[in-house]
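Much of what follows relies on a compact textual record of a protein's fold. A record is reproduced here so that you can trace the correspondence yourselves:
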Amino acid sequence: MTLFELFFFFFRISIITFGGGLVILSMVQMEEEKRKNINPEEFADMVSLAAFMPGSITASISWLIGKHYRGILGGFVSVLGAILPPFLIVLLLSPFVLKYSECSYVQGFFRGVLAGTGAIIVVVVFNNVKNTLSSQWWNVVPYLLTIALIWKFSMHPLFAMAIVLSVQFAKDRMISK
């Protein structure tokens, strides 16, 4: 993908989606599956890394995919394409949304968006779990370990993720030797 294509890839996805990072993530995943340039395991790794990175998942996944295709400049261009539409939409539409927020049509629109967003998130989670289970069972262990540390031992999520990341790093080092 060229820099121009990267910018408009994320600009187009960002301008037509409601619901934030997980919805955009699912749209990116569907587009990448069509292109077949990033295999499902590599995309799952990008999603895991994007979820771990600080900031929005939209900016993180656009950075990682842009960097994959065109290096650091590709990352910057992709992030710009992803964040520009919501910025402009909020800038232009917020006065109208505030003015008409009590209108039943506006409320109905947002209820519909909420329902659609929930459905898309469920599909993305299901597909990612299915891909993880079908490719390598070990990829599920870090998720289960994180949940166990948080739930069973009341551990802070950041500490749990740090422990799981350390275990994953050690496992990868042992396998590569």
The two ends are 34 Å apart (CA to CA).
